[in-house]
């Protein structure tokens, strides 16, 4: 995770610079400290290094601290300045604050004051930069890392917006919540977030469905066990294994209330205690959670803690169900045909041109899981040329409301039709249901396309 942490110390006294650098390295170990003893070099150093913070002496040969402060405010507005001053220069330091310095520090102050001020300044710069990045990235219409979304096919504007939103918030230190029905692509979005944030660190997926609090603790925090002989054995939890990668908490809505309280602690304090240990360990990973349930409703029903809800909702992505993504259908069917054919070692069959139209009113309760299953079934049943549409037609028929099923029982009129009439009625129905696609209609009727074509031509 990118945090602002580069600091430049500027002072003409090399011995003071050395001791300040050592102190800060010890007290603020997450910072990267550089030093500069020549006030004429400061502008060049800032131009080549991405400094969040400058600790600036006031009295130096060549350029005074006040002059350098003005240069930094003008040319490097994203860099904050803390004035480091002697007791006799406090008036000047206060004037510097009025001119935009973040704070001042008196050389004789105790080092705890210094480390607190530096930490706070780094946090402020980190938040400012984060906010700016989110704003700039969201306002631009383009993605800077489109390859992170290679696994998510879509041309739906609402999802393309979610790509830009995810790219904008991926580097934020806050967690991200992905909300959508089963099979809407939550896992894929979490993987994209991993690519955007920490591709070379681990991605760990923890399924929280049905987990109890004890199992949650062991799974996430790990355990330290002290044996009778005094030996200690450790079992690493997901938070240890993930390091600075991405922890994906799948189905967070299923977590018991007690375990939710433990998760709030992790997010809030960025640390955790392995079971059996009273030593805290830092949390350095990105946390992405997903849910199929509306957490607001769970919260109203007393099943989801408010503090966890509001922490998770700081960045949230809502994925639409497939029934609201009809623009994507044809492309997704082709994609799954390629996958299925590859997995089965077959030639990829063609998608019937009107298949997506026929599915226009189908609700897809299982979303992409269901579509993928249908396509894999259709490929396995295909004649090698065209995708078999039986699985799709079966699903459409199953979904028809009560009373519209005509397949189970046939209601004949009082006077029975002749065989020829019945056969003609069947052909007409199949052609109408498949929008006149002879191959699809033939599949439906259980005859070859050439046999159907002969019957149609004969009847003309
Ligand atoms: N836009 C997409 N393009 C291509 N494949 C996709 C897309 N979205 C999802 N998939 C595929 O569809 C299947 C279901 O997606 P995924 O597992 O991400 O959904 P989910 O919402 O996490 O489901 P669940 O809630 O069951 O975990 C997966 O095989 C995934 O690779």
UniProtKB/TrEMBL annotation:
The keyword Phosphoprotein applies. Residues 152-380 form the Sigma-54 factor interaction domain. Signal peptide: none annotated. Keywords: ATP-binding, Nucleotide-binding, Phosphoprotein, Transcription, Transcription regulation. Residues 6-122 form the Response regulatory domain. Pfam families: AAA_lid_14, HTH_8, Response_reg, Sigma54_activat. The modification 4-aspartylphosphate is found at residue 57. The keyword Hydrolase does not apply. CDD domains: AAA, REC. InterPro entries: AAA+_ATPase (IPR003593), AAA_lid_NorR (IPR058031), CheY-like_superfamily (IPR011006), Homeodomain-like_sf (IPR009057), HTH_Fis (IPR002197), P-loop_NTPase (IPR027417), Sig_transdc_resp-reg_receiver (IPR001789), Sigma_54_int (IPR002078). This is Sigma-54 dependent transcriptional regulator.
């Amino acid at each position: 995770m990118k945090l602002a942490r580069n600091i430049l110390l500027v002072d003409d006294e090399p011995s003071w610079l050395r001791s300040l650098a050592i102190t800060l390295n010890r007290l603020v170990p997450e910072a990267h400290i550089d030093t500069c003893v020549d006030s004429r070099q400061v502008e060049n150093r800032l131009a080549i290094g991405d400094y969040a913070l400058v600790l600036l002496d006031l009295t130096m040969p060549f350029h005074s601290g006040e002059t350098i402060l003005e240069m930094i405010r003008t040319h490097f507005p994203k860099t904050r300045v803390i004035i480091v001053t002697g007791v006799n220069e406090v008036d000047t330091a206060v004037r510097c604050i009025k001119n935009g310095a973040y704070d001042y520090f008196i050389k004789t102050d105790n080092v705890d004051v210094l480390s607190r001020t530096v930490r706070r300044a780094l946090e402020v710069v980190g938040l400012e930069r984060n906010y700016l990045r989110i704003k700039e990235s969201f306002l631009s219409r383009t993605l800077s890392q489109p390859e992170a979304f290679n696994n998510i096919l879509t041309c739906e504007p609402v999802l393309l917006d979610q790509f830009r939103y995810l790219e904008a918030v991926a580097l934020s230190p806050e967690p991200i919540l992905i909300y959508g029905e089963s099979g809407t692509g939550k896992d894929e979005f979490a993987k994209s977030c991993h690519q955007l944030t920490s591709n070379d660190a681990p991605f760990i997926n923890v399924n929280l469905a049905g987990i109890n609090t004890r199992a949650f603790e062991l799974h996430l925090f790990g355990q330290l066990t002290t044996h009778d002989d005094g030996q200690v054995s450790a079992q690493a939890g997901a938070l240890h294994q993930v390091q600075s990668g991405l922890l994906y908490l799948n189905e967070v809505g299923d977590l018991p209330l007690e375990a939710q309280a433990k998760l709030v602690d992790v997010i809030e304090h960025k640390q955790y205690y392995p079971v059996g240990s009273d030593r805290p360990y830092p949390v350095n990973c990105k946390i992405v959670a997903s849910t199929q349930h509306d957490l607001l409703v769970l919260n109203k029903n007393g099943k989801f803690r408010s503090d966890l809800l509001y922490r998770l909702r700081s960045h949230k992505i809502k994925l639409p169900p497939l029934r609201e993504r009809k623009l994507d259908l044809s492309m997704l069917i082709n994609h799954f045909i390629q996958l299925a054919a590859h997995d089965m070692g077959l030639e990829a069959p063609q998608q019937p041109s009107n298949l997506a139209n026929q599915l226009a009113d189908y609700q897809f309760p299982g979303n992409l899981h269901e579509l993928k299953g249908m396509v894999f079934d259709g490929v396995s049943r295909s004649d090698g040329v065209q995708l078999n549409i039986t699985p799709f037609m079966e699903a459409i028929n199953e979904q028809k409301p009560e009373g519209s099923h005509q397949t189970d029982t046939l209601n004949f009129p009082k006077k029975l039709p002749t065989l020829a009439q019945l056969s003609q009625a069947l052909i007409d129905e199949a052609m109408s249901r498949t929008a006149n696609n002879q191959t699809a209609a033939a599949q439906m009727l259980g005859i070859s396309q050439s046999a159907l074509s002969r019957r149609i031509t004969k009847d003309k």
